[in-house]
Design a protein that fits this description.
Strand order of the largest sheet: 4-3-5
Largest sheet: 3 strands, mixed
Helix content: 10-25%
Number of helices: 2
Structural class: alpha+beta
Distance between the termini: 33 Å
Order of helices and strands: HEEEEHEEE
């Protein structure tokens, strides 16, 4: 299995997320750098719809002196659960 995962990473078919120390997660739906929203309580991860342009990455590299090899954009927070009652919305965090 690990050889297959490594091959898929090399082919650019999956993106290794690597946000936690306990285990690795992979994204095959969008195998290129994009934002992820991560719940710090239940560990749910979803893709974020936010444009991340290459020019900003190049500017960051030039300003910092770093060569960015694997840009990642984790946004940490809580999953919001929405419930409807009598045409009103009620929000609460997961868990």
């Amino acid at each position: 299995m690990y050889k297959t995962v490594d091959l898929l990473k090399e082919m650019g078919e999956i993106l290794e997320l690597g946000f936690g120390e306990d285990s690795q997660r992979y994204d095959g739906a969008r195998p290129y750098p994009h934002p992820h929203l991560i719940c710090i309580k239940c560990n749910k991860i979803i893709d974020g719809d936010l444009s991340l342009d290459q020019e900003s990455l190049r500017s960051l590299e030039q300003a910092s002196g770093y060569q960015i090899l694997r840009p990642q954009y984790p946004f940490m927070g809580f999953v919001r659960i929405v419930k409807r009652r009598d045409k009103k919305l009620f929000f609460r965090n997961c868990g």
